[in-house]
Amino acid sequence: QENAKLEVSLAKVEAANKIADPLELLSPFKKFERNGLNLRIECMKVANMEKDLVDWAFQLTKANMQKLYEESDWGWKDKDKYAEMTEDRAQYLVAFDVTTGKPVAFTHFRFDMELDDEVVYCYEIQLETECRRKGLGKFLMQILELLAFKTDMTKVMLTTFKNNKVSQDFFKKTMKYEVDEISPDDPLFDDAYHYEILSKPTKKSAKPTAPDTTTATQSQPVTAS
Ligand SMILES: CC(=O)SCCNC(=O)CCNC(=O)[C@H](O)C(C)(C)COP(=O)(O)OP(=O)(O)OC[C@H]1O[C@@H](n2cnc3c(N)ncnc32)[C@H](O)[C@@H]1OP(=O)(O)O
């Protein structure tokens, strides 16, 4: 029985990875026009990304995250992070400024197995400073949640540092993510682990709000599910 369930889960991940452009499932989410931003959102597998674009994503991640990595026991290594960001299964949602054509934000995600569960794993969400606090991070995470729903994944997962206050507030308070059951924990030492694994289950019972161009472009964030 367990094997049969695993086969089903693996088949779902494989099917999701075969979708050429997952954002085609959510066409109205290809633009973000709010709070002074006029952006086009594209979904790309890393193999189809120009090297300049991958390098931009890496440099933005480095600028935003290196200090936090160095404060943890993971440390920061350019080579390791670049390798992670360019692994075969890596897919990206990238937001481009419509006027300048420049990328301003991205999320690196994958359809993958996490233990026995089929999940959307959000490896990174990174915004240029000038695009923050305008609802864009929330919008990109809502796209991931809708993709998880559309492809029948069980949840969206991510790893974040406990001392990244911005991401703690963003994911836990705003996006309502909770500490996942597989997050490492030591009851004797609060700070034994410098990171935690958060997740949000896909609501199978509730259909996500029908995306339409009106809700996707107004100043109110779109409800994901
Ligand atoms: C899995 C990972 O990638 S973990 C690492 C996450 N990434 C980073 O830390 C990189 C640097 N930070 C960023 O790129 C961005 O700040 C993000 C992705 C964390 C948030 O994206 P934003 O577009 O700025 O968030 P958004 O505008 O959607 O904010 C929604 C709400 O989240 C909360 N929030 C967002 N940023 C902050 C902040 N700096 N401080 C406190 N609360 C915040 C607020 O409640 C906010 O609503 P409000 O602006 O109406 O008060």
Automatic annotation (TrEMBL):
UniProt-listed Enzyme Commission number(s): 2.3.1.257
UniProt KW keywords: Acyltransferase, Cytoplasm, Lipoprotein, Myristate, Nucleus, Transferase
Entry-linked Pfam families: Acetyltransf_1
Annotated GO MF terms: histone H2A acetyltransferase activity; histone H4 acetyltransferase activity; protein N-terminal-serine acetyltransferase activity
Superkingdom assignment: Eukaryota
Compositional bias ranges of the Low complexity kind: 207-225
Cellular component GO terms, alphabetical: cytoplasm; nucleus
Region feature Disordered, mapped onto this chain: 201-225
Transferase keyword on record: yes
Subcellular location: Cytoplasm; Nucleus
N-acetyltransferase domain residues: 44-200
UniProt keyword Acyltransferase present: yes
UniProt cross-references to InterPro entries, sorted A to Z: Acyl_CoA_acyltransferase (IPR016181), GNAT_dom (IPR000182), NAA40 (IPR039949)
Catalytic activities: N-terminal L-seryl-[histone H2A] + acetyl-CoA = N-terminal N(alpha)-acetyl-L-seryl-[histone H2A] + CoA + H(+); N-terminal L-seryl-[histone H4] + acetyl-CoA = N-terminal N(alpha)-acetyl-L-seryl-[histone H4] + CoA + H(+)
Xref: PROSITE patterns: GNAT
Family indicated by similarity: Belongs to the acetyltransferase family. NAA40 subfamily.
Protein name: N-alpha-acetyltransferase 40
Organism: Magallana gigas
Lineage: Eukaryota, Metazoa, Spiralia, Lophotrochozoa, Mollusca
